[in-house]
Write a structure and sequence with these properties.
globular; alpha+beta; 3 helices; 25% helix; three-stranded antiparallel sheet; 10% strand
Length: 125
C-alpha cells in the first residue's frame, strides 16, 4: 500500500462548523495526492448557511494565521476552493495547487470587503 504524502496538521484549527456538518479540515492525506486548489464560482447567496460557513472558515483562518502566509496542510480543499483566488491567494511564485505544502495567504483587502464579519473577535452563526 502506498504511503500517503506528508501533510501538516494545523493544531488548534477548528475542524468544522459545529452542528452543521461542514468541515474545515481533513483527517489524513490522500494517498493519490492533494486535491488541486482552483477557484470555484460562488453564486450570490446572502444570508444562507453556505455564506455563513465561508465567513466562519475565513474567520478561523484569520484568527489562526492572520496576515502571515500559511501552509495548506490539512485544510479542506473544497472549503478553500470557495475562497481561492479571491479572499485566499497563493503566497509564493512557484505555487503548486496539488501540494499540501503550498503556501497561501489571506488577501485582507478583498476578504474584509467580502466577509467583514470574519474579522470580528467573536463569530456567531
Amino acid at each position: 500500500m502506498a504511503r500517503p504524502p506528508e501533510m501538516t496538521k494545523h493544531r488548534g484549527f477548528p475542524s468544522g462548523l459545529p452542528g452543521h456538518g461542514h468541515h474545515f479540515t481533513i483527517r489524513r492525506a490522500n494517498e493519490k495526492g492533494a486535491t488541486p486548489l482552483k477557484q470555484l464560482q460562488r453564486l450570490a447567496r446572502p444570508n444562507t448557511i453556505e455564506q455563513k460557513v465561508d465567513a466562519a472558515f475565513l474567520h478561523a483562518l484569520w484568527h489562526h494565521f492572520g496576515s502571515e502566509p500559511f501552509e495548506r496542510g490539512n485544510l479542506d480543499a473544497g472549503r478553500l476552493n470557495l475562497l481561492f483566488g479571491r479572499e485566499v491567494v497563493p503566497a509564493e511564485d512557484n505555487f503548486d495547487p496539488t501540494s499540501y505544502e503550498a503556501l497561501l495567504r489571506i488577501d485582507e483587502r478583498v476578504a474584509r470587503r467580502s466577509f467583514p464579519e470574519s474579522f470580528d473577535d467573536v463569530f456567531e452563526v
